[in-house]
């Protein structure tokens, strides 16, 4: 029963996450968490705020001398700009003399203020901001450390920005380490250097025109053994849980597993991954259209899942909108100025995928103690050989 | 806190569902539930079993004289073929002299037997079978009745089979009743008569070749008021919950909301739905790329969500596989013989979408009693005008 | 993630339970489940209905040839009297010409009809009836089989009826098998034969006077190893979960662990169970005031927990009440006529305790497959020696 | 779906709580939260630490200008002694040269280290410490503010310390304000001044002897309207949830509702609360043995629930124990030195009861926005008159 809650507004004092249910005795490296936070902030096409906020996590509980002790882990990421915002965001007292009242299309602004009966859109946008995903990246970074210790690595790469496709199918069968290092040197987290050049140009152009771009990223989990998730009840299916997690990232509007939407045009005779067996290798496939899951269960192949991000809805040339106080036409307010956040979203995607896999892993193996978990996995690996 | 569990094997005695948390005093029409079950069984390209099973639901609890009483509702769907299967599926005693040992690619067969340490694949395939979705259709039919009483209608239509696209974008803004009746007369639940003809031919051809076809369906929820779901925590987002629910349907490999994957190629200036206001209409949009949700919250426009189904993996010409007992190559077993189940999957899609909306509705409004729920919704509708 | 839902009215067609999350490959003996159902129906002082209903469970899913297969298990207990009640309880159509309108004190009648806005108290009392506990006994009987396979036995005995105390402290350290057989021959599930005689006389007398009696029972779980439950978060504490489960049994008004309320008068120097160690025995205590749990975690001693049951509120001499339709004074209706149901409640108590322990066990050890669970427990037992 | 997580070690940097699901627009007064934290620290018989830690809450999210905005609320309570403990509790690096190895009876020390495979008992005792309850008091203080706005007040009083009983039955029907003020001036949160004197003497004496005392406290919720909780499923019962919450407080070993364990000796004819009706008053009772709940549902009378606390197990004269490293006999370590913490536990009891009631309230009425919640409750109050 691994679970977490996150909290925090974009311009409030801090983002906080509490993770409950980690095994005790697990090494937890803060530097790696900070590394993931830095990866979320990188990326060609990011606006000024990313420079302000070099995120650092502080651990307030659950870890002692770099090792978990079984109790809930608190992660705090301070918002460095907080002092400048205190007057407009004070938790205890005051009032905002300049409420935001022009609802931005494509954001939670309008449905959020309606639902929660707010008169200042800031009450909504502060939490609906993508800043919230920093907390999830921190949480996912912890999950990644858990996974890595049992041989599972989660990486991402960008396959499309603004309609420009990268040719990157090779990664799905490649060697993790090689791909990972190649991605590290890419400004857009993209494997196809030619496509990346064109993507950069498109971002440049969009930026000059005050426009924004969306795109697609792919998450791959290497080293997942068969048996995570389950067919027995709908809410235990690994694909359902991964899809829900990815769709919960702000601006994500679609998710597909393996061949995904291309399955519509594939006849059954070409669609499925035939099964083979060799004594040293165990069961294996020569194709992976299924994206590593069958019947809602991991099947031992790499898990492959993609998500599409809509372009950032805050434009330099604001969209037509309405003032929620006067009900008169108004230009949508500007809150930030990234041109393209797809590479950052991919990092968030890794985080949520890592979380779901860690959750499924602990459900399957229990493991209050790090050694118990390792022993259970070892037993299982021997059993299923 | 609406919740449900389903149970039942494909050739066991029955499918059962328990729904907990429905308001008391809600009229529940069994005929409508049976109507939905029948819709799931219809569809060009379905195999012989659909004739055997004319599903009927039996209510064992929670409803008295056609009205809910607040206690859990039990729905049972008998498997009519049970007597013929009793010997191979007896719960209490016996053994199967002919276990299934050839794992079918594209099914839960192999990962399921590995995970659960089974030696007879039947132990897995019986529950992993799409038959399970009949229980979810029954559950969804109850949710639909709840939604309908507050003005929300959930329908579906097929937009692609085997790569053949229907031109059906109009439906998203059309009049529900008109569309619904037009769909009723379609053998494939498709709005584009021309495309439907070509789809039928493709199905015919695939059937003759022992092949199968997948496709895409679209779910539209009309009449959803703003404010279902929330931006405040990832697992409360309506889009995330809908995506998870749709992806949990067997054979679904992708989900997209509104413009979905097409967002990748749309610049921000063209992607977002500008906001307008008129006194009689309230807030409205002239486009609906967002598919009725912004920031994980319904925004008052129709909810539009699509899913892709892979072709049925059980082919007349079996795929290469392995015998789990001998580890020798084996031809995958045949269990059923539909050519294309996309129209049926669309009905299941409606059911799970209806469920998620009903859940979100009750979370927002509470409502132990039918009248209390109606009063809360009336109040909200007046408040947000 | 073991979970269950139950459903069913007292005079409806059946009680149903779905259990989700049992390991696959676990032997499940229906006769043992029926044996527990019979134990619930026994007991000196029970009314006529107990003769009508000789409960039998039917399994509709999740079990094949006497072994679980990982999918949800459906248990159905038919209400034998259903045909006589069909007209007053039909799910689909009809109406009750004789609604119950006199609210009985001590039942859910009044708060239930208020909450759910019902005009016929039968809509409430049918589910609030103690008959619901038959489903929980069936569920608990499954949990008991799981526990027994890992060496944990849950038994109960009655320690007080109508104020008459049994002297039964010895059981807590005794040999399970001996106690269990001794209890089997007791009409009141009581270890103290003298006290039992006086209890019987008290029941006899109360029955003659149209009165009813409550009492206290004790649940003991033998063989629980240390480490179930947790101190790390309030809702993981084993004592909290056991207390919640016991208090959820109809008519239970108090729960205490180990020395329980007697702790108030014990100074700390006499209250706590000192810790000793011997190579062959491991850690042990010479007293068990803590009732087998410290810090919300099982500590390896027997778990001891008691609950008090109020006297059955349906009396032959009805209490003063009000007609919910007329608001005039009315005599409370009679629905059944047990004099004392404490021995039956003890059986329900065993069931819910067994469930909570099984839940905690699977949380700790995972175990999709029976062999994996056993291996994980073996490993743990060796690790903690 | 109100929920929270807490985190934090006794000597770590801080306690943290995240509350998710509060309605937006609710006034939240930090001073009141601090007031409750101060109440937890008061009390005759508390040791030195209570002087060190004058707890203050800091809000990091979810509240703006003193009003909730719908997003998760983060509460942080700094541990003022942290700087002195940093070396022994550093999250990131270091090691403890003086691990705690003597397990204290009556604490989580031994079962916790076994479960989580720790070699330094500090890894367990830091979280198992009653310090954790400060976070719950803060969370409960928020719940109390929500309840107070709808007319529900939760108070507590001590009825027994060390076996000395207070005569305080009157409170259950009294005027809240009067009782509350009278309790404020009591050092032991006790209504019976005579008994309180004797309790103080007993505490004094125990302190001199290096001993400790337990006791009993009672929680009363005034103003609860009928209909919270439900009879329809075991885990919705209000009494079950309250019992679980109270039993989850460290050192609590028993819980009883209304007449509680005294029900065992009451015949049915004297046990139940007869129902009356008057036009202006609505339904009412002349007795409240049921403690305000029937069938797991609040019935409109005051909710009355008691809990027993065992004496603090850390004594000046240590108990016999074992060193977990050497397995040799050892004297249990001393970590703190309160003589009696029953008044503090009563404050924690109020907090957890308030939380459960707030949870049940929001489940029943929904209410994303403060005004919507109020309107729903108004409607219900009119409906049930």
Which features characterize this protein?
homotetramer, 385 residues, alpha+beta, Chorismate synthase, AroC fold, four-stranded antiparallel sheet, 12 helices, 20% strand, globular
Describe the structure concisely.
Chain A is an alpha+beta fold and 385 residues long.
What would you call the quaternary organization?
homotetramer
- CATH topology term of chain A: Chorismate synthase, AroC fold
Tell me the structural class of chain A: alpha+beta
Total domains of chain A, how many? 1
Annotated CATH homologous superfamily of chain A? Chorismate synthase AroC
Q: What's the tally of helices of chain A?
A: 12
Q: Report the sheet with the most strands of chain A, covering strand number, pairing sense and barrel closure.
A: 5 strands, antiparallel
Mean pLDDT of chain A: 93
Secondary structure tally: strands of chain A: 17
Topology of chain A as a string of helices (H) and strands (E):
EEHHEEEEHHHHEEHHEHEHEEEEEEEHH
Spans of chain A of at least 5 consecutive residues whose pLDDT stays below 50 are: none
Give the terminus-to-terminus CA distance of chain A.
27 Å
CATH class membership of chain A: Alpha Beta
Helix content of chain A: 25-40%
**Biggest β-sheet: strands ordered side by side in the sheet of chain A:** 8-7-9-15-10
CATH architectural label of chain A: 4-Layer Sandwich
Q: Biggest interface and which pair forms it?
A: A-B, 110 and 110 residues
What is the radius of gyration of chain A? 22 Å
**Shape descriptor of chain A:** globular
Binned strand content of chain A: 15-25%
Keywords (chains A, B, C, D): Amino-acid biosynthesis, Aromatic amino acid biosynthesis, FAD, Flavoprotein, FMN, Lyase, NADP
Subunit structure (chains A, B, C, D): Homotetramer.
Catalytic activity (chains A, B, C, D): 5-O-(1-carboxyvinyl)-3-phosphoshikimate = chorismate + phosphate
EC number (chains A, B, C, D): 4.2.3.5
């Amino acid at each position: 029963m691994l679970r977490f809650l996150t909290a925090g507004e974009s311009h409030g004092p801090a983002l906080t996450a509490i993770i409950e249910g980690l095994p005790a005795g697990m090494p937890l490296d803060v530097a790696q968490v900070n590394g993931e936070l830095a990866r979320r902030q990188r990326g060609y096409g990011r606006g000024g705020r990313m420079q302000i906020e070099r995120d650092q996590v502080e651990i307030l509980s659950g870890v002692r001398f770099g090792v978990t002790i079984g109790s809930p882990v608190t992660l705090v990421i301070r918002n460095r700009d907080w002092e400048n915002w205190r007057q407009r965001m004070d938790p205890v007292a005051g009032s905002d003399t300049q409420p935001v009242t022009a609802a931005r299309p494509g954001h939670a602004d309008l449905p959020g203020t309606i639902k929660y009966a707010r008169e200042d859109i800031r009450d909504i946008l502060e939490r609906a901001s993508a800043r919230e995903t920093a907390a999830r990246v921190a949480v996912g970074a912890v999950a990644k450390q858990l996974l890595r210790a049992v041989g599972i690595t989660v990486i991402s790469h960008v396959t499309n920005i603004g309609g420009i496709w990268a040719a990157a199918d090779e990664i799905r069968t490649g060697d993790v380490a090689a791909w990972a290092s190649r991605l590290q040197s890419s400004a857009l987290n993209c494997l196809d250097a030619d496509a990346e050049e064109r993507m950069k140009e498109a971002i440049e152009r969009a930026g000059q025109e005050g426009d924004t771009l969306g795109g697609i990223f792919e998450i791959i989990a290497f080293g997942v053994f068969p048996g995570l998730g389950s067919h027995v009840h709908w809410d235990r299916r690994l694909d359902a849980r991964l899809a829900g997690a990815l769709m919960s990232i702000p601006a994500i509007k679609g998710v597909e597993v393996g061949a995904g939407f291309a399955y519509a045009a594939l006849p059954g005779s070409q669609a499925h991954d035939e099964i083979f067996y060799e004594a040293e290798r165990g069961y294996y496939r020569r194709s992976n259209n299924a994206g590593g899951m069958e019947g809602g269960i991991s099947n031992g192949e790499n898990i492959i899942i993609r998500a599409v991000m809509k372009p950032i809805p805050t434009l330099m040339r604001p969209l037509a909108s309405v003032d929620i106080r006067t009900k008169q036409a108004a230009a949508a307010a500007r809150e930030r100025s990234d041109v393209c956040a797809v590479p950052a979203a991919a990092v968030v995607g890794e985080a949520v995928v890592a979380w779901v896999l860690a959750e499924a892993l602990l459900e399957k193996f229990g493991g209050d103690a790090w050694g118990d978990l390792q022993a259970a996995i070892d037993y299982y690996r021997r059993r299923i050989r």
